[in-house]
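Below is one record:
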Amino acid sequence: MADDMNSHSGTQELRGWNADDIMHWREWTWTGPGADTLTVRLARDDEHSENWYRAIILARWPTWDQMFGALCASALRLELRGQRRWSTLPPLPRCLLLTCRHCTTLTRLPDLPNCMRLDCTGCTGLVALPELPQCQTLICRNCSRLVSLPELPRCEYLECALCSALGALPELPQCLQLYCAGCRRLLRLPSLPSCRTLSCGECSGLTALPALPQCVVLGCEYCTGLLALPELPKCESLYCRGCANLTDMPDLPKCERVDCSFCTRLTKLPVMPRSKWLHREGCTGLPTIYRAEDAR
């Protein structure tokens, strides 16, 4: 069967193809022209899956694109890395997990009504994302042309660092971890009532942060527009290095690690009864020797 598949124009051998086992397989890797690599998992609950497998074996696919489109129609998981062949992908009506890292020729993605995890890191040609009503994890790091994101009502993990054109984020009512460092055009962050980890370093357009009642780790290094921080009752690690305009910090009753180096406008440190690790180099407004009674 491998020889038969390999004989068709635009395709190469399907690794591990075994006619005796194929009826039991649900996942394999295909390497196509230009060393494109495709990993596909078929829907397990497809009542026609056996016939679909036979069609793959028997049908003659004249092009790689036709084979790819047929695979995508039933794929639950699709992985593409470094693909530079297509500007878009075929329909993915059943896809739950889509990875298309560093596919720089992609300018848009198909509708993803069931996608729970999308990773399009380094897709520098993408200008927008489709609606993602089921998405729980979105990783779009270094998608430098993205100007906005769709509504993400179920998202728990969002990583959009280095999306330099991104001007706003949607509401994130369920977000537990947000990584948006280097998004210099962001002027505000949405409400983050559930967020436990926030990394927004070098977001120089931010002048304030939302309430962070559940935040355990906050990294806002070199957010030079920040004037103050919100209350952080559960924060254990705070990294605000280089926030040159920061004039005020809240009390940190649970914080063990603080780096406020080069916060040159700070004149006092907050109450930090559990502090075990403090970096304050370059804080020229603070006393040379910090004493507990210097805290508010």
